[in-house]
Give the backbone structure.
Amino acid sequence: MRILLVEDDKVLADALCRALMQSAYAVDVVGDGEQADNALAVRALLRRGSTNTTPYLVHGRLRLDTVGRRLYCDETPVELSAREFAVLELLLMREGRVVSKEHMVNHLYGWGDEVGANAIEVYVHRIRKKLEPMGCDIRTVRGMGYLMERVGGPD
């Protein structure tokens, strides 16, 4: 779970932050209400994604309809869960660049969402199984995250 801690006493904030982190929580600390509003507004922007004007992300035979929230392979629909769709959308928006697990968690989950340690790995595994027959792959970059290579191979 991700927690936004708002505390103006730095000593108390540090102690609370350490205690929460030791209990396996992700903690963001700000000093006042205005900073909390800003943090909640930056996080909302991150979760909305890019300002892409086209409703489609295309990758080889794949076409991701970001408005209709559907994936197609050669015009045939491919079933994805909502989280699988969100993971694939993020990878396609950042095609050719490594996306860290932390970035994915920050993009996909809200402040109060409970996030398992291997949730992202599970979604990537499921997507890989669905995309493999279509000749698409999500590459793991050890210690860094995941990469949807550009069509035609690496740069």
